[in-house]
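Complex 442.
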Amino acid sequence: MSPSSSGSARKIAPATGKLGVLTVGLGAVSSTLIAGVELAKRGMAAPIGSLAQMGTIRLGKRTENRSPLIKDFVPLARLEDIEWGAWDPFPDDAYVAAQRAGVLEGPRHIEAISDTLRAIRPMKAAFDREYVKNINADNTIGTISKRAMLNAIREDIHRFRDEKKVDRMVMIWCASTEKFIEPGPAHRDLASFEKAIDANDPTIAPSMLYAYAAILEGIPFANGAPNLAVDTPVLRDLATQKGVAISGKDFKTGQTMVKTVIAPMLKARMLGLSGWYSTNILGNRDGEVLDDPENFKTKEESKLGVLEHILQPEKYPELYGNVFHKVRINYYPPRGDNKEGWDNIDIFGWLGYPMQIKVDFLCRDSILAAPDLVLFSDLAQRAGLGGIQEWLSFYYKSPQVAEGLYPEHDLFIQLTKLKNTLRWMMGEEQITHLGREYYDEV
Ligand SMILES: NC(=O)c1ccc[n+]([C@@H]2O[C@H](COP(=O)([O-])OP(=O)(O)OC[C@H]3O[C@@H](n4cnc5c(N)ncnc54)[C@H](O)[C@@H]3O)[C@@H](O)[C@H]2O)c1
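Predicted structure with nicotinamide-adenine-dinucleotide bound:
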């Protein structure tokens, strides 16, 4: 046992065999994720941006010099063991999807793995234009009842498992943002949810059917978009009951990631904020979907939520009691996936003197895709951690938390939580950063 090990590691099933990764949606994010992992597997690219692959974790005291790579410290699935499956209403295989998305350079990053990408063909999607108006494509299971959609998703999962001979699976929603739906009576408990499915209730979106299918099949579910999907009382409870790992909503990759670094800085130094105007231009398919006000509303709620929780205006009314916060997304086709996000931040300091911060993030939206959520969700599942995985908040704009808790949005609190969870899983001591021992022992 190491000097600082607490000795009570969790029992974690080994990552033997293949891990099936089912992406709902085969667009810019998923094709970039798949291509990146396939290139990394072949040693043709470094997994830059992946904490799970490139990050280290300090164990014990600073004097112990123990900082292994996270992937050597916890038993993660190997990238080599991943098998891909996907659903999409567009029939394009991953090769065509990657080319269409226009994120990656063809010769270097698409052609080099073309055989693998061409072999990933989307299954027919459980799709309904009622929820995503700006997509019109027909690789779908058609306009059938919600019950039939649920059954079709489950059959696809079984077929994928048998054909690819995978031992475990993870499902990740990388599909378009659905229109705004608030949790309601249909999402309260299993009886109401089942009844609503049979009644084709409009508050049951396709994302909820995918999430429900995943939980019923014992498959961890991660949601890259802001639509509810698994974030309802019924599916949260079911995931806990069935011991299935779920985490949050809406990948935190660009403007909001920056926001959750700058806002804690202002609060840490007790600097005031009077306004924060965030605007974006982007021209990919995601931008087109978000051009519809009903779909944008879902995204807006997710993007707006973070400041309120970080700044706690109720505790600091003079500093944050009157903040004007606005988020805009503008569809601008010439930019494609090369989004530009501007932030104008009006702050005030000593004696109330105003100052400004400007951020211009020339962000390649989908280039921030990494396999971490998939690998960590699989780890959680093998470690017997069912229900909400708050330690994965790090990756989300809208983390999921237990009822009655406020979410932690500060990126570095989230990172500490993630790493301490890994230490806890492996029976290592938590790092509190108190550090008295270096002085008391002298
Ligand atoms: N790019 C990022 O960094 C980022 C960050 C945060 C959130 N997101 C979210 O991730 C999601 C994917 O982004 P993207 O840029 O890949 O978008 P995209 O439009 O390129 O891909 C989404 C795909 O999902 C498909 N789809 C829609 N409904 C479906 C359904 N019911 N079943 C199966 N497939 C369906 C669409 O046909 C499309 O091909 C979006 O919701 C986006 O808001 C992306």
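The CA atoms of residues 123 and 156 lie 8 Å apart.
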